[in-house]
User: Which sequence fits this backbone?
């Protein structure tokens, strides 16, 4: 029955640790800003996953709260530094971040781009369904974002009377 409960489990220490780590995260987020947990780029996502892993190992292993807190703070300040450097040096941003990629241009699926991004047509169709697209004529564009998310830009009706602002596609690669 040790896999359900063991008298050696540090339950009280874990609960206290949860409160302390929670307070540490709140304080660090207030210092670094909400962007600390944003998902704008792949490395933002990696930082968020790494912080989650540190929290997990701190609460469930022999890692001390101070050690875990310092590791979280280090990653958050590193993410903040990268964000600052990207603004100052746009070439760094292009080097470490993927530019969004156009997967559909209007009602045309760009098969070469799908192949480059290793995305199946069925996955794009699933995203169209998720966005409540009823037919391809409603689609203005489908974009693979730098975070790995797929955005569907579409009209509410199939006659496309709505005006589509091409500015929404600025920075999106048309060819891989």
Assistant:
């Amino acid at each position: 029955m040790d896999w359900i409960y063991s008298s050696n489990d540090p339950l009280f220490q874990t609960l206290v640790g949860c409160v302390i780590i929670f307070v540490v995260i709140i304080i660090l987020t207030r210092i670094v800003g909400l962007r600390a947990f944003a998902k704008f780029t792949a490395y933002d996502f990696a930082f968020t996953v790494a912080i989650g892993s540190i929290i997990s190992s701190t609460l469930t292993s022999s890692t001390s709260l101070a050690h875990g807190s310092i590791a979280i703070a280090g990653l958050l300040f590193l993410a903040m530094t990268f964000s600052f450097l990207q603004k100052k040096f746009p070439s760094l941003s292009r080097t470490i971040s993927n530019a969004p990629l156009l997967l559909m241009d209007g009602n045309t699926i760009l098969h070469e781009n799908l192949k480059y991004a290793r995305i199946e047509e069925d996955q794009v169709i699933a995203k169209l369904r998720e966005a409540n697209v009823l037919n391809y004529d409603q689609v203005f564009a489908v974009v693979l974002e730098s975070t790995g998310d797929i955005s569907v830009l579409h009209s509410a009706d199939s006659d496309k009377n709505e005006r589509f602002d091409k500015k929404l596609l600025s920075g999106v690669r048309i060819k891989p």
The chain has a mean pLDDT of 86. The chain has six helices and four strands. The first helix runs from residue 11 to 32.
